[in-house]
Amino acid sequence: MAHLTGKERSEYVQNMFDKIARRYNLMNRLMTFGQDMKWRRFVIKQAQLPPHGSLLDLATGTGDIAFEALRTTPTATVIGADFSLGMMRVGQHLSYGGEVGWTGADALNLPYSDNSFDAVVSGYLVRNVIDIPRTLSEQKRVLKPGGRIVILDTSPPPDNILKPFILMHLKYGIPILGRLVGGKDAVDAYTYLPESTQAFKTPAELAELMRQAGYQNVAYRTFMFNTMAVHWGEKPT
Ligand SMILES: C[S@@+](CC[C@H](N)C(=O)[O-])C[C@H]1O[C@@H](n2cnc3c(N)ncnc32)[C@H](O)[C@@H]1O
């Protein structure tokens, strides 16, 4: 991965998700021991979407976060945007799939006007983009003043007594599970996931990038032995 240019890395990520789309949801449930839906519910809680509000689920993938928004706020307008059409095609056939406004979009160049959404949320996007400040700034642009950004992503395992066990799960558990569930097409993806997690920002570093991008009231909460984090903040009014 380190040898790829930004554009090549972007294409690599896009193709990778197209390839694993069919087995993606099952892998999530297995890898996280069924915890991932709890974090998605927390993301939507932090979005504080008003009735009839508008939400953009950026990097929606198969739509799990978008579906959670529709489940808790059925009157909301929910747009799911992603650059992997394969992932969104899977989501279209799931329950609530008919109620999401699925859109092909790049998180670095959003096809929406300024001040469009009450909330912009994302799950496992920021670790994958080639320019984090750029996506944070694009998300701020399309948020209404006072609108909320919420980000769910993995975090590098902190230095503590659990680190060797977490590294074992990342280095061996997840790639082996990926191969068993997704076959050889999934090997790259579930090797990339642990590598990109270890190379990603710590929760404190990501919070600082959000502040630098101009968000206010930035805060975060970590889950699963600090290996998962949800960050939130607001666009100034
Ligand atoms: C791990 S999946 C997460 C899907 C979903 N948010 C979830 O929580 O399950 C990451 C998604 O991010 C998308 N993605 C990565 N970089 C992107 C970018 N620059 N623009 C749009 N989507 C992107 C991928 O196509 C993929 O569907």
Automatic annotation (TrEMBL):
Q: Does the keyword Ion transport apply?
A: no
**Is Ribonucleoprotein set as a keyword in this record?**
no
- Give the EC number(s) listed in the UniProt record: 2.1.1.163
| Molecular-function GO terms, alphabetical | demethylmenaquinone methyltransferase activity
Q: What does this gene product do?
A: Methyltransferase required for the conversion of demethylmenaquinol (DMKH2) to menaquinol (MKH2).
Any idea which UniProt keywords this protein has? Menaquinone biosynthesis, Methyltransferase, S-adenosyl-L-methionine, Transferase, Ubiquinone
| Protein's UniProt name | Demethylmenaquinone methyltransferase
**InterPro entries for this protein:** SAM-dependent_MTases_sf, UbiE/COQ5_MeTrFase, UbiE/COQ5_MeTrFase_CS
HAMAP family for this protein: MenG_UbiE_methyltr
Q: Which reaction does it catalyse?
A: a 2-demethylmenaquinol + S-adenosyl-L-methionine = a menaquinol + S-adenosyl-L-homocysteine + H(+)
Tell me the pathway. Answer: Quinol/quinone metabolism; menaquinone biosynthesis; menaquinol from 1,4-dihydroxy-2-naphthoate: step 2/2
Q: Which family does it belong to?
A: Belongs to the class I-like SAM-binding methyltransferase superfamily. MenG/UbiE family.
Q: What class of enzyme is it?
A: transferase
SUPFAM superfamilies, alphabetically?
S-adenosyl-L-methionine-dependent methyltransferases
Positions annotated to bind S-adenosyl-L-methionine: 62, 82, 106-107
Source organism: Phototrophicus methaneseepsis
Q: Which GO terms describe its biological process?
A: menaquinone biosynthetic process; methylation
